[in-house]
Amino acid sequence: MNPRSLGLIVIGNEILNGKVEETNSRIVCKAAPPLGLKLMKISAIPDDVNVIAREVHEYMNCFDVVITSGGIGPTHDDVTFEGIAQAVGEKTYTHPELLTVIETFFGFTSSETTQNDPRLRLAQVPQSCELVYGIDCFTGRQSFYPVVKVRNIYALPGVPNLFHTGFAMIKEHLRDTRVKFHTHSIYVTRKETEIAGFLSTLANKYSRDVSIGSYPAFHNSYYQVMVTLDSQNEKVLNDAHGEALAHFGADVIEYEPNPVRRAAERVYHLITQPTDLGKRVMEAIQTIEEALNQYTLDQIVIGFNGGKDCTALLHLVYAAIQKRSGVTNLDDKDQILNNRDQNNTVSLPRLMYIRSRSVFPELERFIRKTLQL
Predict the structure, then answer these.
(1) I need a surface site. Which of 93, 198, 250, 290 has the fewest CB within 10 A?
(2) CATH number at residue 146
(3) What is the structure's pLDDT at 343?
(4) Mean pLDDT, rounded, for 201-229
């Protein structure tokens, strides 16, 4: 079965002039295959009603699902709703339910303000729109603020945390359970030019069912090329994967691209292995778990100076906390950090940074980023 097509339109002058880094497209790129969608195109356009209207009109007729990012807000350059309305041949109007949501959110009533109040712009939406509510990924309850949908178009705000929340809310509306993508990744220590011929032969052989890609890693210390294989046909995918593994042989390494996200899964798998490393890590984990049983996390301090030993310790402690929390399959954001201020809080231990005379700039940046979490 062919997956439904998806198009993403990123709207904002600030994206085109480089004043703001665009990160929302990455979320959509990663989420599309598990949802049974095939992302076909991404475009970035300015805050211009006519440009938005043309782009949306083209997308809505070319793709099954369209997502817009940006241009939603109270200011003069937030014109996405106007552009969508023009694309579908409608006008905007004040949506009564959305107006109530906005009044509650901002703590005012429209009768007490003027028609020029910029907050009222948020309720000006295309006439045929639907309000889509979902489950708020942070509270676990029905979302308070809806996503505006017009035909096959979902309009999301451009601010990254708001986009993330809105996208999480509409995921189940987008999901096609009839389509499932399977994927394998192979990390090879040979140069891309050395394996290009084989990959071309393999791609031709499995062209009907498997998509094969190769991505050189010029600054990775472990591998030189990542080879990906994607397919809806799991059996054929496994055949192609096995053929590739057999060809590359000893040039394939075991590599974990998401060591933090999958810390608990990988570390606790390692300690089950009958190897010297597995035994050593098991002893360390037992010590860490004993400490976690005896003390609360705010009573535990990790001494950290950027060396290999304390970096490994930090990772093992994180893995133990992650496993304890029950959150072992993390989504786009680290749920342990996202949930730290909620009632079901998963706390983190204190980190004591010991600054030596010779300071590593990379370490200082890491510490600063940690403090910002």
Answers:
(1) 250
(2) 3.40.980.10
(3) 44
(4) 95
